[in-house]
Amino acid sequence: MTFELDISVFRPDRPGIRKVLGDLEAEIMEEIWSRPAEQGTTVRDIFEILYDRRRLAYTTVMSTMSRLAKKHLLRVVKQEQTYIYYPNYTQQEFVSQFVGRIVEDLLINFTGETLSAFGKQGSFTSAEQARHKLDEITRQRGKEGE
């Protein structure tokens, strides 16, 4: 799948996927990822699980799942009168995507500092890999601009 993830926030002080998702978004995605992907999930499924923990309104869960679909984390299929949500990524794929985006952003916006930080990690390989990644990003952006 080639969806462009909508990740516009990074909170370094938050744990795990909450670095890029809100608490409720992360909780919903964790519930969805805990199920077989091909099974699909309804708003009611998630609402019933979260209601005991958080006393949320059904509409809050519905609007949050809709927002996750707009961010391309979920896709929606309408079956009769019910909307079924499916993850576009496994949890590991999502983490890889957002880590890649963050590293790419650091390389583009803070090239010297990012390369220096990789070098200070004591791994010449990491710094060299970061330079290759920066070259690849630069080439790709050059092609897109043509």
UniProtKB/TrEMBL annotation:
Gene3D superfamilies according to UniProt: Winged helix-like DNA-binding domain superfamily/Winged helix DNA-binding domain
Entries under Pfam families matching the protein: Penicillinase_R (PF03965)
Keyword annotations of the record: DNA-binding, Transcription, Transcription regulation
Coiled-coil residues: none
GO biological process: negative regulation of DNA-templated transcription
Cited SUPFAM superfamilies: Winged helix' DNA-binding domain
One MF annotation (Gene Ontology) recorded for this entry: DNA binding
Membership in a protein family: Belongs to the BlaI transcriptional regulatory family.
Protein name, per record: BlaI/MecI/CopY family transcriptional regulator
Source species: Reticulibacter mediterranei
Lineage: Bacteria, Bacillati, Chloroflexota, Ktedonobacteria, Ktedonobacterales
